Amino acid sequence: MTDASAAALWLGSLELVGALVFASAGLLDMCARRRSAAVRRQIWALAIAVALVLPLPRLALAASGLRLPDGLAAGLLAVWAIGATSLLVRLVRGHALARRRALEGAPMVAGPWHETALEFAGGPRVELRACASARTPMVVGIWQPIVVVPAAMLEAPPAERRALLAHELAHVARGDCLMALAGGLARAIYWPDPLAWWALRRLRAHAEDAADDAALRTGIPSSSYAAQLVAVARAQLERAGRVAADGLRARVRGVLDVRRIRSREPGELRWGVPRLIGAALVLATMVTACEARSAEEPGAGGASRRASERRVAE
């Protein structure tokens, strides 16, 4: 078997196992529909972490005994590489552009926004910047996060200001920027699988819902917070298009849903990055070990049968 054929088969099996991981996360998400958005976000975060570390233990797993024509194998690898590279370039460019725009904003080291941020005792230390070109509040950066506040929202009432900061600081506390980056990397690796794209969308949606729940826990009425989201949706519709605005409309419906669980569940914030990576490595290794064992058993059975046949013949 040529190297190209073995690599193509190995990559194909990786894509199939990754699809199984994302499908399992979707099933768990459905089963956890009565839990909080933070818990459901954790399900997708773990699934994406497993998908990212899955290639590491699978490096020791040989490709199957099948064989692809050299031309077909090389073509499949080239198509995958082109798709993965384009998505990675877009991911890096987007993060770099967001970082540059955030740094163009004016630092807020005093004033009502700075004072409100200090009220969140025990919260993460972040930098606040006011940006005239921003349409919506956002968090930029992983190691040194920056909360970008649109200049049009600087005169927001105290309750709305506190809710907006609570939302963005919840993203920082949960490491949503890092998870969004991890989700983008997983999508680039598994881009032929539609489930990888769906996993990233579900992770982002649940992260936003969990941050909205944190904002509502500040005491702002859900109707007032929903009105804020409607204003943001209008700005998004003007600049980013209908897709982004539709996501905000879904958030508005979730904010106004009185049946949704918003309470802080025990342990929902305890899964930091080290524990997440550790759990992902354990699960990925278990999946690979089970696959390797199932692949060896038929061969071992066949060898024992051939040995017994030789003994009978003798």
TrEMBL record:
CDD domains in alphabetical order: M56_BlaR1_MecR1_like
Key word Transmembrane present: yes
Residues covered by the Peptidase M56 domain: 73-236
Alphabetic keyword roster: Membrane, Transmembrane, Transmembrane helix
Entries under InterPro entries matching the protein: Beta-lactam_resp_regulator (IPR052173), Peptidase_M56 (IPR008756)
Annotated TM spans: 6-31, 43-66, 72-92
Region (Disordered): 294-314
Pfam families (UniProt xref): Peptidase_M56
Name of the protein described by the UniProt record: Signal transducer regulating beta-lactamase production, contains metallopeptidase domain
Organism: Nannocystis exedens
Domain of life from the UniProt record: Bacteria
